[in-house]
Amino acid sequence: MGDYFQTIVDLDAGEAEAEELAERAVAWLVSEGIVLADREVCVLGQPLGHPPGPHWSRAVADDDPDGEPFDGLAVHTGPTVFFSGQDEPEAVTCPRCRTTTDLSDEGGEEDEGEDGEEGAWPRFSEAITDWQDTGHADVTCPACAHDVPLSEWLWTDDRLAVGRLGLEFWNWPELGDDFRARLTAVLDGHRTAYLWGKL
């Protein structure tokens, strides 16, 4: 069967505000009765998480038939690359010139990197490692030659997001659009990404 997760990633949270926004988001979720304040062993990948609260249904889609959540909320702060657990992303768009780059490794010589590897994915893969290690990484756009921070690239699918704050719901029914919009407002209206995955 596997374990399912849904992650809402704040794409705009800066280094200095991620912790404060995480605390604010959890406080709001607790006040709404969506999760409990006390943490327990209820999430994968972290020792403790927030279990579902008495009004967890306020977070899920009205027409979702999947029943009650049976795990909790994991809160991630710090430079993190959030993956859906599925395939690698297919393409990414430069925020400067709006050119979309294919991330398959089937590119020709014009896509060859400095190290001789073909395709654009190796450059992004290296930047992902740098981001996780240091919180900073740039990727040079192959179209406009600008150095663009990894966190500003626009991923064309829901397989990857880069940010300093992620709220990861484990084994919950599908989160509702209205809930996600209200949570975004709590996060100062920041841009968010929504990833769904399975392990």
Structural account:
The chain has 199 residues and is α+β, with helices and mostly antiparallel strands. The chain folds into 2 domains: 121 residues, no CATH class; 55 residues, no CATH class. It contains 3 helices and 9 strands; from the N terminus they run E-H-E-E-E-H-E-E-E-E-H-E. The strands form 3 sheets. A 4-stranded antiparallel beta sheet has the order 2-8-1-9. It is globular. The termini are close together. About 6% of the residues have low confidence.
**Fraction in helix:** 10-25%
Overall mean pLDDT: 88
Q: Strand-and-helix sequence, N→C?
A: EHEEEHEEEEHE
Strand order of the largest sheet: 2-8-1-9
Give the beta-strand count.
Answer: 9
How many helices? The count is 3
Low-confidence stretches: 106-117
| Number of separate domains | 2
In angstroms, what separates the terminal alpha carbons? 9 Å
The biggest sheet, with number of strands, parallel, antiparallel or mixed sense and barrel status, is: 4 strands, antiparallel
Report the β-strand fraction as a percent range: 25-35%
Shape: globular
SS-derived structural category: alpha+beta
Radius of gyration: 18 Å
